[in-house]
Amino acid sequence: MCNSRNKMYRKNQTMIDYFILLGFSGAPVLQHVLFAVFFLIYLTTIMGNISIVFAYRLTPSLHTPMYFFLANLSFLEICYISATVPKMLSNFLSAHKTIPFSGCAIQMYCFILLGGAECYLLSMMAYDRYNAICHPLLYGTIMNKRVCIQLVAFSWIGGAINSLINTVLTFSLSFCGNNRINHFFCDIPPIMQLACTATKINEMVLLVACGCVIVSSFILTLTSYTHIITTILKIKSTSGRKKAFSTCTSHLIVVTLSYGSAIFMYFRPKSTYSMEQDKVISALYAFIPPMLNPFIYSLRNGDVKAAVKRIVCHTVMGLKY
User: Residues 6 or more apart from 159 whose CB is under 8 A from it?
Assistant: First the structure.
């Protein structure tokens, strides 16, 4: 009899088949306005990052380690924003803002994987700039094609391992009936708030796992730039210092945007979570960096601007004739 009751209790804990994403607002008029805003952000992000990828692929002069990493970052950003925005856009126009239990797990896995891969990739880009500025004579040997591919592969593998750990632990929690996620996508903090069992272990693992990704990549980036700045300051020519530092400025801006919001989002105890505040922070790191990255890099880089202009001109002429 006792065994039967325990089985029924465990069954009731895992009966949730789907979640409801509450999103930003329940007002129908505002939903349509938000749809238009985020659709524009999504379209701008996709077009901007695709232009970087095509510029790299179609311009032989850009086939260098720096632009190889930039093209991979742009591809990653396309996947990153596509993990959350399409579902959010459909929910803006739908009365039933549901996502299947398995779909929620897949969305979380993809989002954390891509976020972790981006952190590692940004640190690899810092390492690339370190070698270019601090070891210019050995740069071609150190950053050969094989090494570049291995560094990108490591970024994806590292992100995948971190994502698998956190996703499995999160969806191993017991949910007793409340399936309303006070968020616009399936992120770890709002999902943990729905659990009816202790989440201390999950919080510790989240802190450690995300710490390994964010902190380790941040330390590598910081170390690289410490050496870069030290080397630049030793350059006697003012124009030489300006030219050397200009190759790093765009990357520094992107690093600040990405790490700042991620650290604020995940490195807090559960008791301090405010879902309304977290939605805004989540939007900052989920939408703004992917949208701004192609503009930050292209506007400050003459080679990329020239390549994109040539591609656009050829495309327009091709359509014309």
Answer: 112, 113, 114, 115, 116, 117, 118, 119, 120, 213
Architecture of domain 15-320: Up-down Bundle (1.20)
Checking phi first, is residue 197 left (phi over 0); if not, alpha (psi -120 to 50) or beta?
A: beta
**Which residues pair with residue 98 across a beta bridge?**
20
**Does residue 52 contact residue 297 with C-beta atoms inside 8 Å?**
yes
Residues 6+ apart with CB under 8 A from 197: 13, 173, 174
Q: What is the pTM of this model?
A: 0.84
Spatial CA neighbour of 104 closest among 95, 116, 112: 112
**Residue 77 to residue 179: CA distance in whole angstroms:** 29
Residue 201, CA atoms < 13 Å, CB-side half-sphere: 9
Report d(CA 156, CA 162) in Å as an integer.
Answer: 10
| Alpha-helical segments (H) within 135-215 | 139-142, 145-170, 188-192, 200-210
Find residue 35's DSSP bridge partners.
none
**Rounded CA gap, 75 and 227, in Å?**
29
Cβ atoms of residues 272 and 311 within 8 Å: no
pLDDT in single tens digits along all 321 residues of the chain: 444 444 444 444 456 788 999 887 666 778 888 899 999 999 999 998 998 898 888 888 889 998 999 999 999 999 999 999 999 999 888 878 899 999 999 999 999 999 899 989 999 999 999 999 899 899 999 999 999 999 999 999 999 999 999 999 999 888 887 888 888 899 888 898 888 888 888 888 877 877 788 888 888 988 988 888 888 888 777 776 777 677 677 777 777 777 766 666 666 555 555 666 677 777 777 888 888 888 877 766 677 777 777 776 766 655 543
DSSP 55-112: HHHH-GGG-SHHHHHHHHHHHHHHHHHHTTHHHHHHHHT-S--EEEHHHHHHHHHHHH
